[in-house]
Specification:
Elements (H helix, E strand, L loop, with lengths): L11 H51 L5 E10 L4 E13 L2 E6 L3
Antiparallel strand pairs: 1-2, 2-3
């Protein structure tokens, strides 16, 4: 019976190439992770801003706006700038529920 005596291992060049490929893959994964973290952080801040804007709209409605056609001014902020938006619409008061319905032109 013939015995195989193959004790070859990896050459230095093969090891260096494998390390280079692994390094490239790691850098790509880190770049993707960094951009995903940035998007998630931006989404968090946008959700916080949307919640604050919704609270402002509800507060404006709750301030005793009369029933009927009205123009409501809403002030939105992004932390540095304020934007005032005037919305034409109608306030409907049904018992304990007050709703502002914007007019679509």
């Amino acid at each position: 019976m013939k015995r195989l005596n193959n004790r070859k291992g990896l050459s230095l060049i093969e090891v260096i190439i494998a390390m280079a490929v692994f390094t490239i893959i790691v850098f790509i994964m880190l770049a993707v992770y960094g951009s995903v973290a940035t998007v998630i952080g931006g989404s968090r801040q946008q959700s916080i801003d949307n919640y604050a804007d919704q609270a402002a709209v509800e507060e404006a409605i709750a301030e005793g706006v009369s029933t009927g056609a009205v123009d409501m001014d809403f002030i939105f902020t992004d932390g540095t700038d304020n934007v005032t938006v005037t919305v034409n619409g109608q306030v409907i008061n049904e018992g304990e529920i007050t709703v502002f319905i914007p007019a679509y032109d």
